[in-house]
Amino acid sequence: MRPRSALGALLAVVLSGALLVLLPAAPAAAADVRTEDAGVPSGSGADAVQLDTTLYVPGSATAQHPAPAVVLAHGFGGSKESLADDARDLADRGFVVLTYSARGFGRSTGQIGLDDPRFEVADLSTLIDRLAKRADVLQDGPGDPRVGVAGASYGGALSLLGAAYDDRIDAIAPQITWNSLTAALFPSQTGTVDGARTVAATPQTQDSGVYKRLWAGIFFGEGSAGLLGALAGDGAAPAQLDPAGTDPAQAQQALLCGRFRADICAAYQQAAASGALTPEIAAVLDRSSPAGVLDRIAAPTLLVQGTQDSLFGLGQADANARGIAANGTPVKVVWYAGGHDSAASDRVTAHLRDQVAAWFDWYLRPKNDPDRGTDPGTGFEFPSPTGLGGTGGGFVQGGSQTVVAAAYPGLTGDAPARRTTLRVSGPTQPVVTPAGGTPAAITTVPGLGALGSALSGQSVEIPGQFAAFGSAPLRSAIEVVGAPTVDLDVTSPTGRATLFAKLYDVGPDGSTTLPSGLVAPLALTDVSDDPSAPTTVRVTLPAIDHRFEAGHTMRVVVSTTDQAFALPAEATIYGVGLARADLSVPTVAGTTQDTAGSGRWWVLLAAAVALGLLGYGAALLWGRRRRRRISAVDPDGEDVPLRFEGVTKAYKDKFVAVRDLSFEVRRGQVLGLLGPNGAGKTTSLRMLMGLITPTAGRITVFGHEAGAGAPVLSRLGSFVEGTGLQPHLSGRDNLRLYWAATGRPAEDAHMDEAIEVAGLGKAIDRPVRRYSQGMRQRVAIAQAMLGLPDLLVLDEPTNGLDPPQIHAMREVLRSYAQTGRTVIVSSHLLAEIEQTCTHVVVMARGQKIAQGTVEEIVGTGGAVLVGLADDAESERAIAVLTGLPDVTAERTDDGLVAELGGTGRAVALHALVEAGIAVEQFTPRRRLEDAFLALVGEGPVQ
């Protein structure tokens, strides 16, 4: 296999993970949700297909109480099985949910038409016809069911096209999808967008562009892989393949094209060979693009797009938003930290799942339905910008905060997006295009974001192939939310130029970050060949969500090559300079909220260590090490793995999250950290891990003061705020990748022990995208246990586990502590804390309100467990006890429990004995939940 073919095969695997998993695995299905599998015929003649479908019907949906329906469409390379967890989640919420494998995928027959209105969109209408015949589906009229459509990427485009062609669709929620497939695969971010005032408006060039070679190859590879699966017995082979082999030419063509239609196959072959956008290729891509039919969409639209996406950038969602809102249709825009290049954290994806459900609740449920919720509005949400690269394929996810604005700036009658102008400078510079485009700059690897770049040190720019223009150091931080613009002067001896523009964040030490690993391709024609009279070009840089810190500089880089794109074969030299010394960057004001989080402390540490070891972060890390304050070591540090002493965390707005918190954890203990919402426990854990700094007080780990970059933190293992796993890699490869990023020797990982402890079995070698939520949880816990850390910190470790798995996890944690190590568990499952932990710290309103063993906390109230020699005496014992002042008693699963109120235990016991009732046990007994609620006097824990 040739190198490029091998890379294409590898990246095809990457794509299947990147496109199929937007939403997290849902909780186990409710017992009253039933499924109905059916083959549904669609189309006619040679284009007739059989669609493999599954319908999820909640028990609450009946002919007397019909429910609205949702059709879920899968991503490219997926099938109805990819949607099972999300379908069950929506069914649990009361929707009738229909999933299916699109033609050419899974066990559905037919060939892939790339969401062609004549085929895939018509199939969607056929499925809606089926829903219109069901009595348990809410109907707006004859043949018109109340229905919404959602999907990611391939499925997202289908929801847009479906709403344009079928006005029975009442609401849609397209995610990480395209506006123009032509502009997405042949982008050229030059010129202006007529009338656009939005933050991420990006030119959607239709007649020329730079071929996105690697991503296009992945698409085609996925379709071809479908054929191989069919031949192996997983699905139906395409009709044009002659099984008997009587027509070798036809069979060869089928193997070459996979499950694609012939016209799509021909368009791909032509594009791959020439790298040029021809009218024939454009015709194929344009008919599968929502761009031309947005004016038909009347269904309220929730647009979800990822900030880490080199396939369908934020500009694609911006164009969809503008086109749909122009009709007066309600549009809400949500950006999130993730995309085709990087899976979002579990908390981010759970937040997105709730957003989609809330959208359908409002627009699909009847107005008098108590589950309808509140109007989700037409606002704008985006991750709070950070100065991190945000692309590390799981190394760096978005921050734990979301910014909420009242509206997407400039979308309707609102004021245009705010822009800040910075001065950039630099002379006109010659840049070389090498023969054959080799060597080429490396910025991103499709499906892996900047992970490939991170592992090799940094984005690779080839000397002599780029021009650079920089700003002065920033006096204050600037949060760029959207697409910056700059005007360039370009000359070319051939009259044409292929260039790639990007915006780097340059630190005071010279370290560089390319936000989200994104570049803006420029396909220029009619370029002047006269250096004294260059052609001025308006360039829209990639739309990003990034904070440039004070003291940093913005650097505009214009290069001649990028390994992800098709490049000119001939060598030439361009001239590139600034037409104006202005760099315009968009900003958005909003309210910051703590909602979905992401990166764990080790994620950030691993990224820093990996990048430092590979070259470009070493100076920064060394500087921090030299400045680090040396603290005295507590003499009892080895016996007290964790100590909080008078720790307070106050913010600039005077909010005090943690106040004078003091407690300690001894070696071998399993400590449960409990508290209601806003108690401060998450803030406490973040201070422990060095992510934020206490305002006052001291935190020590094994006697050493903890803080950002403290060496002692290497003795701590953590599973906090999501798994952060790469779905396309196996569980074992995820563990290896994480450990390699720490820079520690492989033999110190104790990987086999961690895998065995977590009970992963043979599944450890399967791709994570095939895991249940519980299995992902186990891998993340195994990851935290790598190196067998002396202090293990776990946040909600039993989420997604079934009862036997929870029991096994309980034993794992107890056994781990019995080796002399220490475990801290934060959980809302109070019964699990009671059965797992030896000690508890209860927090409320930022303060510690109780600490002790579980037995001490449970036994502090006035409840007793009464054991009788004869259970037949229970009713008489209850009568005796309830006859005492303020006493209540009842039979429970634990036995006879009496709440004594103000009555003393001795008085109650004496009353039973006096009544002639034989008492074998009379001990203080309260469940931890009862004790917790009595202590804090508040609602549920977080």
TrEMBL record:
SMART domains tied to this protein: AAA (SM00382), PepX_C (SM00939)
Q: Which residues form the signal peptide?
A: 1-30
Q: Which GO terms describe its molecular function?
A: ATP binding; ATP hydrolysis activity; dipeptidyl-peptidase activity
- List UniProt keywords, sorted A-Z: ATP-binding, Hydrolase, Membrane, Nucleotide-binding, Signal, Transmembrane, Transmembrane helix, Transport
**Gene3D superfamilies, per this entry?**
alpha/beta hydrolase, Galactose-binding domain-like, P-loop containing nucleotide triphosphate hydrolases
The ABC transporter domain extends over 642-870
Q: Which PROSITE patterns match?
A: ABC_TRANSPORTER_1, ABC_TRANSPORTER_2
Q: Where is this region: Disordered?
A: 366-394
Per the UniProt record, one Pfam family is Peptidase_S15
SUPFAM superfamilies in alphabetical order:
alpha/beta-Hydrolases (SSF53474), Galactose-binding domain-like (SSF49785), P-loop containing nucleoside triphosphate hydrolases (SSF52540)
TM region(s), chain numbering: 601-622
Can the keyword Signal be found in this entry's annotation?
Answer: yes
**Of which family is this protein a member?**
Belongs to the ABC transporter superfamily.
Name by which UniProt lists this protein: ABC-2 type transport system ATP-binding protein
- Organism annotation: Petropleomorpha daqingensis
